[in-house]
Design a protein that fits this description.
94 residues; alpha+beta; three-stranded antiparallel beta sheet; elongated
């Protein structure tokens, strides 16, 4: 599913919105999620899952093309843990 597909789904779910309003709504949700994660806070969506940022330390790795050792810089990553409800829903669909 792409962002455009998500806008279309929002548009179909609420017939009172225009396509532009639906796109603005989706953009605002994503903007809020990004801003919250950038502040280092977690985003918990009940029945869906939790987005959390983690700080990774500097470490040694290797260049996959040459095999030469290289230093991987410290960085912040976003992880996602699914809720039990989402796990059950996904597994029931298979």
């Amino acid at each position: 599913m792409t962002k455009a597909d998500l806008v279309e789904a929002v548009l179909r779910a609420d017939g009172g919105l225009t396509k532009k309003e639906a796109a603005e709504l989706v953009d605002e949700v994503f903007s809020t999620l990004k801003g919250t994660l950038a502040q280092g806070k977690q985003v918990k969506i009940t029945g869906f899952g939790t987005f959390v940022t983690r700080d990774k330390k500097e470490r040694m790795g290797r260049n996959p093309q040459t095999g030469a050792p290289m230093l991987i810089a410290p960085r912040r990553v976003v992880t996602f843990k699914t809720s039990e409800i989402l796990k059950k829903h996904v597994n029931a669909a298979t």
